[in-house]
């Protein structure tokens, strides 16, 4: 494989994982509300979810979507509904009190991994990556491993930046009203992501 192959995937992965979308908006909100360390399982769960999607799509799941488009349509509706539910939870979250509120908690590793299957941006990223960068013949599975590994590396880095950004914002929010406005803003941005599904 040529270096151009690796660079192309890396650039695509950087843009796709680094730009705003449901994952990054929720990571920012999590960083602000729960701090950097407590948000890390959320970030790592995203990476595992994306990698599992790569292997499922490479194994033929994409063909099922082509043969039965109703499945993809149903996932759009379910994903939209779940995203709106998460947006409502974020918008109505109680103001942070020094990250010590044990009644609320960040998204877990498993929840974040499973959320990718309802995240339209995740499907678009993985379908495009496999369609654009996978190689034919004997190098097919090797190229799939490379795609998964590069996406995981870049996703961890960009997710860490978004969580860190949220953590910094959380330090600046000093009043309950500021927290409410921030959470309402993050919830609204999460809800807006539904527009991109349709």
TrEMBL record:
List the subcellular locations: Cell membrane
- Keyword presence, Acetylation: no
Does the record's keyword annotation contain Calcium?
A: no
- Key words of the record: Cell membrane, Membrane, Transmembrane, Transmembrane helix
Membrane topology qualifier: Multi-pass membrane protein
Q: Which InterPro entries match?
A: LeuE-type
Pfam families this protein is in? LysE
Provide the transmembrane region boundaries.
43-65, 141-169, 181-197
Name of this chain's protein: LysE family translocator
Instruction: Name the species this protein comes from.
Output: Vibrio algarum
């Amino acid at each position: 494989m040529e270096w151009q192959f690796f660079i192309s995937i890396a650039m695509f992965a950087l843009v796709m994982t680094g730009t705003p979308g449901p994952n990054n908006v929720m990571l920012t909100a999590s960083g602000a509300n729960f701090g950097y360390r407590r948000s890390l399982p959320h970030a790592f769960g995203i990476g595992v979810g994306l990698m599992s999607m790569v292997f499922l799509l490479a194994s033929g799941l994409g063909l099922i979507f082509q043969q039965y488009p109703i499945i993809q349509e149903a996932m759009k509706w379910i994903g939209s509904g779940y995203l709106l539910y998460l947006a409502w939870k974020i918008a109505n979250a109680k103001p942070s009190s020094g990250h010590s509120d044990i009644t609320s908690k960040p998204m877990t590793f498993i929840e974040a991994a499973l959320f990718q299957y309802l995240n339209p941006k995740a499907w678009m990223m993985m379908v495009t990556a496999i369609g654009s960068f996978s190689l034919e013949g004997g190098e097919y599975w090797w190229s799939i491993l490379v795609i998964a590994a590069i996406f995981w590396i870049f996703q961890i880095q960009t997710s860490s930046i978004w969580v860190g950004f949220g953590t910094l914002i959380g330090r600046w929010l000093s009043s309950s009203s500021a927290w409410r406005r921030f959470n309402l803003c993050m919830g609204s941005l999460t809800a807006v992501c539904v527009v991109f599904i349709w």
